[in-house]
Amino acid sequence: MPEPKNIVEEASRFVFDLFKEKLSQDYVYHNYQHTLETVETCRKLSKAYPELNEDDKEILLVSAWFHDTGYIQGAAAHEDKSKEIAREFLTERDYPSNKIARVLECIESTKRSKKPENLISQILADADIVNIGEETFFAKSDLLRNEWVKFGIRNCNDIEWAQTQLHFLESSHFHTQEAVKIYGEQVQLNIQEQTKRLQKLEKKKEKKEKEKSGTKAQPKRGIETMFRSIYMSHINLSSIADSKANMMISINSLIISITLTLVGAKLSLLGTSFKENQIVIYPIIALLLTSLGAIIFAILSAKPKITRKINHLEEIKKKNVSILFFGNYANIGLQDFEYQMRELMKSEDELYGNMIRDLYFLGKVLAKKYQLIRISYIVFMVGLIFTVVVTVYVVIYLKRVDDI
Questions:
Q1: 1-128 is classed CATH 1.10.3210.10
Q2: Which of 4, 66, 91, 124 lies most in the core, judged by the most C-beta atoms within 10 Å?
């Protein structure tokens, strides 16, 4: 075997042997063929930029050869694993440290979460996703799906996969003008085609559901009507409870205000003054305590309730709470909330599950509200009875005193 002419050729032979010996055959997408296509795309795109010197092109191609080598150790954090493999390979060959750093920077740019900072990183990032602008996108999409299923990365139905791929097409973009020029038009065509495929799958699903339901009323519409009715019932019952609580607060506040005014002015009651007949104070105390107790429970009933605050999305994933109630997502950031809502809209089961949990917790709050307002009315009723009894007793007592 002849000696490799340069570091790029040596890297190509190393990666070929590495994948041949250590890469699982279940990687039907992230394999040597994908790496080779990425390298060739880098060569193609780099020709449009004369400002790139030979060192730049060398670093770009070496990075392209190594960008997916981490898959030999698994898909998770494969970019970081690829960087370690590249670092070890280049260090053993006394490759300059400044060039090694640039190679690692390029490989890092292939992460979806990273924004390429220089031209060669942008070229590599574009080459890595160039399939979105090729007619072979759909065939390679099927390969990627098979790969994900085999490694348990994600197992979804046809509609969910079509939605995932449409989102990928719409959210991905090229960083270099040359990539947009060559592949941009096909990207738009692929988005249109993927949209048609998704709509076709959705119509097919709807047709099957209609055939399954026959001539009976559509279950989905019935379910939505049920949820709508229950939500309206909750709102009406909550409004009634709040009205009753406000009424109790108003009445008893007025009673307390008038009573305190009379006591403060030391008005006469039943022909005697407070000073001369201190026993008169007992019905007043009973009335004040009755009104105060009724107000406390009425305020507790009318006080806004928060079912449960969520601080982490993990609580939602465990299906313990609903994301639909504002009190639950108040502590979550906008991006997390938007992500969770989009995930929710993809699955009817998840959506209905959240609505069921939302109704459950709203019901718990409503039950507590009515329990408190009921206690408020009981306190008011019993307190009034007790006040009347005490008042009658005081009147009888004072009458006897006068007779004596």
A1: yes
A2: 124
